[in-house]
């Protein structure tokens, strides 16, 4: 039998360029499907089995845990299926199930990210049940989720993701399919998605769609894993070179489609730049005073705009005017449009959505000592995906304060701050 020391749980590190796409737009997602797909991707089976068997503990109340991992066919697709059962069928309170998962993860000596992931998933799941039944977190009513497979799937996924190094990569997901129609479980007959599934998706504002068939496609455990793992939801696959594809099968089979979850692990083709999607708002103004324009600019920034610019132009009849251009997050479009209308009196705002390429930015602080004056200066550090420093920019207001105290040129103090920041970041 394998011993703990033989497994070396935390030895796999992954290049920051690696990405994972969880494709759940057709067959939905369940905990066993995610774990099966991770095994299919190449996660160490011995580590996963060891972790799940660690639940066979008198303290946890699970006895004679059996684990079956088999290749199966779903339509024309070969997939991996995992099935975990136990002789114990005791129901547990929310706090008990959280304790089981967190203690088991701690005893396995997983990476910090893996432990945090397991904790977040089980707390999301139990929290959703507590909210649904209007009970405390500790007294949440647990039915299907109290069985061994819930703890096993969460713990197994944490181990598999750790083993594959995926906690250090960018993880994408498509919109999740939740199915439709009705189904029967411990609460009786309910609509799909199940109330707990919908509550989890709502708690994280995670996008989903109904169909494509009338059955339950997304489970509470599956979506709890999904919402705590995914960095970005996308309609289309990101630009990537695929390295490996894993298929995970659940217990269900459908005549209409193969019931498999597909995971694609690949390498990003963007070695320096990160992509995100933003909204650009524009309006033409030809009858506002400078004071109104200045106030509007300040208000837009204070209300959440990422950037605002005013561009001189000529309008009809050669009247001088301005274009107010706002860069914002998509969720802020309606609010910032209203600000523009209220403050400028414009009759309309143009909105278009676009992709932008950006460099990762971090905020750091450095302590400067100049002519007996000590000042903490914030610096914005831009890095590419390889962690290389591209640019360092000190905060203007901090430098201004130091310049007024020392009577030194702002340019000189900026150079000192940049040099100091490079020294600190090398440590």
Tell me about this structure.
The chain has 427 residues and is α+β, with helices and mostly antiparallel strands. It has 3 domains: 4-268, no CATH class; 274-357, Transcriptional regulatory protein pf0864 domain like (Alpha-Beta Plaits, 2-Layer Sandwich), CATH 3.30.70.1380; 360-426, mk0293 like domain (Ubiquitin-like (UB roll)), CATH 3.10.20. It is built from 12 helices and 18 strands. The chain has helices at residues 4-7, 31-41, 45-53, 94-107, 112-133, 148-164, 195-203, 220-229, 290-302, 333-344, 396-406, 410-426, and strands at residues 18-23, 66-74, 77-85, 170-173, 176-177, 182-185, 188-191, 208-209, 232-233, 240-249, 260-268, 274-285, 307-314, 320-328, 350-358, 360-370, 373-383, 389-394. The chain has a 7-stranded mixed β-sheet. The chain has a 4-stranded antiparallel β-sheet with strand order 13-14-12-15, with helices on one face. Strand 16 (360-370) and strand 17 form a beta hairpin. It is globular.
Percentage beta strand: 25-35%
Number of alpha- plus pi-helical segments: 12
Taken together, the total number of domains comes to 3
Determine the mean pLDDT: 88
Q: What percentage of residues falls in helices of 4 or more residues?
A: 25-40%
Kindly, what is the distance between the CA atoms of the first and last residues, rounded to a whole number of angstroms?
Answer: 43 Å
**Biggest sheet features:** 7 strands, mixed
- Based on secondary structure, the structural category is alpha+beta
Poorly predicted runs: 1-5, 10-15
Output the strand order for the largest sheet.
2-3-10-11-1-4-9
Q: What sort of overall outline do the alpha carbons produce when their principal axes are compared?
A: globular
- DSSP summary, beta strand count: 18
Order of helices and strands: HEHHEEHHHEEEEHEHEEEEHEEHEEEEHH
**Radius of gyration, rounded?**
27 Å
